[in-house]
Design goal:
six-stranded mixed β-sheet, alpha/beta, 8 strands, single chain, about 250 residues, 2-enoyl-CoA Hydratase, Chain A, domain 1
């Protein structure tokens, strides 16, 4: 439980991949790798017609990178490996030959915004604000950046990146195209995403596969690009600025 969990349940053609971490559903490296593996497996399972990605609880959808793991990084290779975990999850979502629906039941930070952006269709509650806090920590949203920019456009991505300590509302995220629909409570959110998943599970899988390939045109270089971006983040996380910030944050003085 301390390192988090990932569980997959497949029923009626719908594979629901659920992740959990006790620290606001943050993502340590082991959890990222497991999450990528589960999405890849669901994508290759002939019984699966559509994938739902969600997290447990009723508060944060995902708090992004685990600060405990960030502060433990001592060399570039370890840093690159950690941030490559985010690359692996985004690429698994991108390359899965099934639509990935993302359920955002609470706030999303950093890598959590990346997961929401990498979804083919993302529903959220109206309290699901978003923030790309990486620059404030001393790094940048390098790995998740391509997914976020693809979804919301360069101007909105720049706003999120530069004003790194500011929350942007769920309504803002919907207007920019990150969220396809907003709901006042989790029950209505679940009804909407399950209804859409049921419809898709009965749709032509070949047609959906072809559509997904078209929708993700121009991203074939992401296998290489996101690893290059992971190295950039891995280098910056070793900086004195970033290490001091994380230590201060964990001490509760910020």
């Amino acid at each position: 439980m301390e390192s988090g969990t990932v569980q997959t349940k497949t029923e009626n053609g719908i594979a629901t991949v659920t992740f959990f971490h006790p620290q606001s559903n943050s993502l340590p490296g082991t959890l990222l790798r497991t999450l990528a593996d589960e999405i890849t497996k669901a994508g290759s399972d002939p019984k699966t017609k559509v994938i739902i990605l969600k997290s447990e609880g009723e508060k944060a959808f995902c708090a992004g990178a685990s600060f405990d793991e960030l502060i433990s990084i001592k060399d570039l290779e370890t840093g690159k490996k950690f941030f490559s975990g985010f690359a692996a999850v985004i690429n698994a979502m991108r390359k899965a030959p099934k639509f990935v629906l993302v359920r955002v039941q609470g706030k999303a930070v950093g890598g959590g915004v990346g997961l929401a952006s990498a979804g083919d269709y993302t529903f959220a509650v109206d309290s699901a604000s978003v923030k790309l806090s990486e620059l404030a920590v001393g790094i940048g949203p390098f790995v998740v950046g391509p997914a976020v920019e693809r979804k919301v456009g360069k101007a909105a991505f720049s706003q999120l990146t530069i004003n790194a300590s500011e929350w942007h509302t769920a309504q803002w995220a919907k207007e920019k195209g990150l969220y396809a629909g907003l709901f006042s409570n989790i029950a209505d959110l679940d009804t909407a995403i399950n209804t859409l998943a049921d419809k898709l599970a009965k749709s032509n899988p070949d047609a959906m596969m072809m559509l997904k390939k078209i929708m993700w045109e121009g991203t074939d270089n992401w296998d290489t690009l996101l690893i290059e971006r992971a190295e950039m983040s891995g280098k910056l996380v070793l900086s004195e600025f970033t290490r001091k910030f994380i230590e201060t944050f964990k001490a509760g003085t910020r």
